[in-house]
């Protein structure tokens, strides 16, 4: 039976590998969640369309709304697709690293690259969600002092799809920020 510092070192090595695996698994789960929320945001936005009628000064006018009619909604679609692609790529790299029993983050340069990409995509997602929120708020309230009504009353399904998409967009941003924090923790430890 062995005793002394050698046994202690092996025990601490085992603890380090368990901690490493937990953080790697956490990285993998964050990537998966980020990809799923980005795909959900994209899916809800591209299915947002509806036709109805609205009454303006007693006249019944047909209205039709689709996500592609607004540049802000198009921005959400493009950024959500980019984040989904980025998250899928990182998920595949992470999964292959875990299968090879190596660290998810391969080097300091890789960690810095992932950190920069996560930050850039997080800012782009919050920017897209904020822009879409302004348009959605206008659709829900109408324009004061004009005859333009609240478009969400006749187009409730459209507005609900957009609102859910925006919520998923903000959640994706939070997940990207958490991933960036995890990258910083890895950089500080290595």
Automatic annotation (TrEMBL):
It is found in: Cell membrane. The keyword Cell membrane applies. Residues 24-175 form the Casparian strip membrane protein domain. The keyword Transmembrane helix applies. GO terms for cellular component: plasma membrane. It is a multi-pass membrane protein. The chain crosses the membrane at residues 28-48, 75-99, 111-132, 163-187. Keywords: Cell membrane, Glycoprotein, Membrane, Transmembrane, Transmembrane helix. Pfam families: CASP_dom (PF04535). InterPro entries: CASP/CASPL, CASP_dom. It comes from the Eukaryota. Its main location: membrane. Homodimer and heterodimers. Belongs to the Casparian strip membrane proteins (CASP) family. NCBIfam families: A_tha_TIGR01569. This is CASP-like protein.
